[in-house]
What does this fold into?
Amino acid sequence: MADVAARDDNAADNQALLRVVAEELKLPLLHIARASELSELTGKPSPDMFRLVQESARSALTLVDSYILGLELAQRQQSLELEPISTSSVLYDVAQSLHDAAKRYHVNVELQIEGSYGPVMAHRSGLQAALVSLGMVFLEAQPRDGDKQGKVILATHRASRGIITGIYSDTSAVISPAQLRAASGLRGQARQPLSHFSATGTAGIFVASNILQSMAATLRTARHHKQAGLAAVLQLSRQLQLV
It folds into this structure.
C-alpha cells in the first residue's frame, strides 16, 4: 500500500510540474508565432525579430531538456549512481552554458568559488542541468534598466551542513523560504506561483528542484554575502574524506 501511495504522489507531482512547464512554454511559442506572422506581413523580418525568436526558442528548449532529464533521473532514482564531482568544475560549465543568454539579457555572470575542499557526491549532468535551469530564471528575472548591466552569481562555498552551491543575484526581488514552500504547494494550481520574482516565468525553479531531489538534495533559499538566491546543499564524498 505504501508503494502504491508513493507512486500516486509521484504521478501527481509530475503532473503538477508538467502543467507549470506547459504554461510557461506558451509565452515563447507565442513570441515565435507572432514573429512569424509579422515577418509574413512585412516580407522583411527585422534583426530584433530574429533575436526575439532565438531567445524564445533557446529558453523553451533549455526548459524542456531539463524537464525531460529530471523525469529520467526520477525514474532511475533507485539505481541512480552518484559520483565524486567537483562543484567548481560544474559551475564553470554552467557559466559557459549561460554565456550567450547572459549577453542577450545584458547580464554579467560571475563565478565565486570560495575555499578548498574535495569533491561532492552528485550526478554531474543532473547538477549541471539544475543549475542551468536556475540560471535562466535568474537571467530573465533581472530588471531591464537601460544600459546598466544586471549581475548573476554562480557560487559555491563550504558550510557546516556541506557544500552550498547555487545561483544568486542582487535583484530587488527575493524569494523567502515561506514563498518557496507556498509556491511548491501551488504547482499545477497557479499559472505563476512566483510571479513577484519574475514576470517571464519560474518553472525552471521547480524543474531544478525535481532534478536535485533525484540526487537526495533539496533546493532551498540561501544567501551569499549580500546576494540572495537558491542553492543546494551537497555532501562531500565520504570515501575521499577518509583518505
